[in-house]
Design goal:
heterotrimer, A mainly alpha, B mainly alpha, C alpha+beta, A: mainly alpha, Cytochrome Bc1 Complex, Chain C, two-stranded antiparallel sheet, two-stranded antiparallel ribbon, 14 helices, C: alpha+beta, Rieske Iron-sulfur Protein, 2 domains, six-stranded antiparallel beta sheet, four-stranded antiparallel beta sheet, about 20% helix, elongated
Chain lengths: ~350, ~425, ~140
């Protein structure tokens, strides 16, 4: 019965809008199967977490009130008074962190499997932009509960922007909505977090997904070199989709587990005139940058150390984004490809700096 | 154009006028001090200034000069002439004359009114009623006179934190003499009052927490009329702040009994300088009980004491239990607003039942403790509800996990089946 | 047999699915239902009707997390002030004989505008606005 209604609806839509492309995509899209197939799921999980963010974010908007003397109170209200408010808020915070984590994993898996190479340069670039915007989401969202830790972390974070020559100071003022982190900053971050970022993010996400659907899944070198009969594929629909879905359910369950057993503290309300509390630190995904900046000496030659660090990370980010266009000739004597080596170095650097950030 | 000129000139005129006014004002001020004050300038020149002299002294700030108190002629540069008794020079007053010396002005309302319309002028009269004043009159030069507390040449108004008689400074000011055991021995007085006071609930409030509402020495002993409070006045002294306690106590039979026995009112149980925050076992029949000092097992008072303590301890324990639950609710991030209100009420009840101890009537105490018990029980019930809700979250999570687990297993088997079918 | 197994798996999946959907939608729907106290920050509180409030009397009203003393004066005016004594946080009361606010703990006295006029209290009591809307007393934050 249900099936009949379903197919009737589909055929009536088909009649009017011609669903052939969709049907083709569903029927013909296939996913290569090999020992590195597991990485194909990382992007999907990231997408799932983004959907979770979207939904929980909308729900939080119903009760959240930006503003110096209502933000903290409203978050407190959400976690104490509103039924399941604690769950929604904690899922939102946990999902944000997992999203960034999976985005990083996804990015490095793509990097090491060289999936960014021609013809997928633009997929890489849009992906990188999405990652940067996820970080911006995290940074702006961190301030919204208006608690002590967030307040000072934002202060430090925006201070770093101010180091950049010429545009740094105006940019800092623009970000903060004034000279200092105040209620104005909160309104601004709120606007950025719930309106500006979602719009831009969705656009690039759509592009990213569109590119993937047009080009199909990337096949790694060793898979491509296999003789045709040894190449194994599974259809995207329903096989891969089912597996994807299974993973999503598991991730979701882990998410609510974390939300329940490791809730995010609300802490004390931000007070601009209080002295900075101990242990102000940025969110973990900024830690490696924060820690490296701390390690830099005050002056390197005649340039301020911090400025050099900020510039370095800026340039490094740009280079990373442009990786598909970088060609380093591979000589036959080398065991590893130079880019892979650089990638390994970057991963080690990030891991070490992050760990040091938490240990020191 | 014209209007502009008009505005401009008006502004200029107005400015000039205001400036003139301002200058005139300062002129007025300087008029009060004579043009030449040779006492001050000479004494400064020869570096012979009185000990502890301050330019910010209240008298100097009011425009008085050396001569205003000490007499003489400040306009003369000749020492002989300036400091001749003929010109009213009084010199340094002897200790026993100081009260009268200050009283020349301070007891004269017509004069004092010029400076402060509401100022009291009975200080000297009061002083002579005090122990200090009586002894001074009798020729004892060791006792405190005006300058002992107020200083001679750096006197500040009592509200000025620099004043030796500012509330926070009073204990140490009194202690200058009263902490001197040599001196106090002569009068058969103890000298450890400050030490005791600093450890008392009042001393901690005043000296450590800077609570200006807490009593300093003079709040109980008086200042100019300083005396130890008498047995009859002691409960009135304490009752100035602890008014309900006094009211309840005075209405009891016990108050009369105390008076007959020459007991010292509040002090009898609470002590004086070292008064501590009372504990609940001060009533009852235990080791720290004050009641058993007089009441023996079997008499009515003994039974009452036992009952009162039991009631209050029960409420206190229940209040503590409720507070702990409240903190747990808070820590778990559950709703604590209503519980907080109940606790506020309960605390009020606890305070009131402790105050009602002074009726020595278990029936009256029970009324309050009963209320308190009801409130704390309600708070505990509400907390338990919140805490149990916290744990039902876990049950909810377990249920959801079960559902998800079913999905995961079913999906997994389905996928496996599909793969098998394909291979087949 | 194969078909049966497939059917069985599908129905299990269906049951799990319904459970999963329930465990997602139950929290969401509960979340959408407005809580008892509809706002995080209390800016106004209804304090009953004017008619059941006798002149020259008072009551303590909960204002968010803070107690507020609401007084109806002899000439039928309303005054609302923080009820926490500024000395050591006891709850103050209105004395109908002296027409003052009194804290029993240490005999602190405030006037009807909340000014500390005698005893240990170091500061005045915070004032609240009182408005009468159709015979109902509404207390709001000042300013």
């Amino acid at each position: 019965m249900l099936k009949n209604i379903g197919s009737k609806i589909v055929s009536s839509i088909d009649e009017r809008y011609d669903l052939t492309p969709v049907r083709n995509l569903l029927q013909h899209k296939k996913v290569p199967e090999h020992r590195h197939s597991v990485w194909y799921y990382m992007g999907g999980v990231t997408l799932f977490l983004f959907i979770v963010q979207l939904l929980t974010g909308i729900l939080l908007l119903l009760y959240y009130r930006p503003g110096e003397d209502s933000a903290y109170e409203s978050v407190r209200f959400i976690v104490t008074e509103v039924k399941f408010g604690w769950l929604i808020r904690n899922v939102h915070s946990w999902s944000a962190n997992l999203l960034v984590l999976f985005a990083f994993v996804h990015m490095f898996s793509v990097f090491f499997s060289k999936a960014y190479q021609k013809p997928r340069e633009l997929t890489w670039i849009t992906g990188f932009i999405i990652l940067v915007f996820s970080l911006a989401f995290g940074f702006s969202g961190y301030l919204l509960p208006w608690n002590e830790l967030a307040f000072f972390a934002t202060k430090v974070g925006t201070d770093i922007v101010g180091v950049v020559p010429v545009i740094g100071q105006p940019l800092k003022v623009l970000l903060r909505g004034g000279e200092d982190v105040t209620g104005a900053t909160l309104s601004r971050f709120f606007g950025i977090h719930v309106a500006i970022l979602p719009a831009i993010f969705t656009f690039f996400l759509a592009l990213h997904l569109l590119f993937i659907q047009r080009q199909g899944m990337h096949e790694p070198e060793e898979f491509k070199n296999l003789p045709e009969e040894k190449k194994k594929y599974i259809p995207f629909f329903p096989d891969f989709a089912l597996k994807d879905f299974l993973l999503w359910v598991v991730v979701f369950n882990v998410l609510i587990f974390l939300a329940l057993y490791f809730p995010w503290e609300l802490g004390n309300k931000a007070d601009a005139f209080a002295s900075a509390p101990k242990g102000i630190r940025p969110e973990w995904y900024f830690m490696f940058m924060f820690q490296s900046l701390k390690f830099l000496p005050a002056h390197i030659l005649f340039i301020e150390g911090e400025l050099l660090g900020v510039l370095f990370f800026g340039v490094a980010g740009l280079v990373w984004m442009m990786v598909p266009y970088i060609k380093i000739k591979h000589r036959s004597g080398w065991k590893f490809q130079p880019l892979t080596l650089i990638g390994i170095f970057v991963v080690i650097f990030i891991v070490i700096m992050t760990v040091l950030g938490y240990l020191l | 154009m014209r209007t502009r000129v008009f505005y401009l000139s008006t502004t200029v005129l107005l400015t000039i006028f205001l400036f003139g006014f301002a200058f005139q004002k300062t002129d007025n001020k300087t008029k009060q001090t004579p043009k030449v004050d040779n006492c001050l300038s000479c004494h400064k020149d020869i570096d012979d200034m009185p000990q502890g002299y301050s330019d910010y002294d209240v008298h100097r700030q009011a425009g008085l000069t050396c001569a205003s108190c000490h007499g003489g002629d400040p306009s003369s540069t000749d020492q002989e002439a300036a400091m001749s008794p003929a010109k009213g020079y009084a010199g340094v007053p002897k200790r026993k004359d100081i009260p009268k010396f200050c009283g020349k002005c301070h007891s004269n309302i017509d004069y004092m009114r010029i400076y402060q319309p509401r100022i009291a002028t009975d200080q000297v009269t009061q002083y002579y009623t005090s122990m200090h004043g009586k002894k001074l009159m009798a020729g004892d030069e060791n006792v405190a006179e005006c300058a002992s507390c107020h200083t001679a040449h750096s006197i500040f108004p009592v509200k000025d934190p620099r004043a030796t008689v500012y509330k926070l400074n009073i204990p140490s000011t009194c202690n200058k003499c009263h902490g001197n055991s040599e001196l106090m021995k002569k009068y058969n007085l103890p000298s450890n009052q400050l030490e005791e006071y600093s450890k008392s609930v009042h001393g901690i409030a005043l000296l450590k927490q800077n609570d200006l509402g807490a009593p300093a020495c003079n709040d109980c002993h008086g200042n100019h009329g300083a005396m130890p409070p008498g047995i009859t006045s002691i409960s009135h002294v304490c009752g100035m702040c602890h008014s309900s306690n006094m009211e309840y106590f005075n209405a009891t039979k016990m108050a009369k009994a105390f008076a007959e026995q020459d007991f010292h009112g509040c002090e009898q149980c609470h002590g004086n300088h070292g008064v501590q925050k009372p504990t609940d076992d001060m009533v009852g029949v235990g080791k720290n009980s004050k009641c058993v000092d007089c009441h023996d097992k079997g008499d009515v008072g003994y039974v009452a004491a036992e009952k009162i303590e039991a009631e209050i301890v029960q409420l206190k324990n229940n209040y503590d239990a409720a507070t702990n639950k409240f903190l747990e609710v808070r820590e778990k991030g559950m709703n604590d607003v209503d519980i907080g209100f109940l606790l506020q009420d309960a605390k009020q009840n606890l305070i009131q039942s402790r105050t009602l101890v002074h009726t020595f009537d278990p029936a009256k105490v029970v009324v309050k403790t009963k209320d308190g018990m009801n409130i704390t029980n309600k708070a505990i019930m509400l907390s338990d509800k919140e805490i149990s809700e916290y744990y039902t979250r876990r049950n909810g999570f377990a249920a959801a996990t079960l559902a998800f687990l079913v999905i995961v297993i079913a999906l997994y088997l389905k996928i496996k089946d599909k793969e098998k079918r394909k291979q087949a | 047999m194969k078909i049966n197994r497939r059917k069985f798996l599908n129905s299990i999946l269906g049951i799990g699915g319904i459970g999963g959907i329930l465990s997602i939608f139950y929290p969401i729907v509960s979340y959408l239902i407005p809580p008892k106290m509809a706002e995080p920050k209390v800016n106004s509180v209804k304090a009953g009707s004017t008619s059941d409030f006798a002149a020259n009397s008072y009551k303590i009203v909960k204002f968010g997390r803070k107690p507020v003393i609401l007084i109806k004066t002899v000439d039928n005016q309303y005054k609302a002030l923080s009820a926490s004594c500024t000395h050591l946080d006891c709850i103050v009361q209105y004395k109908s004989d002296t027409k003052q606010i009194w804290c029993a703990c240490h005999n602190g006295i405030y006037d009807l505008n909340g000014r500390n006029i005698s005893g240990p209290p170091p500061r005045p009591l915070e004032q609240y606005d009182v408005k009468i809307v159709k015979d109902e007393i509404v207390i709001t934050k000042m300013g």
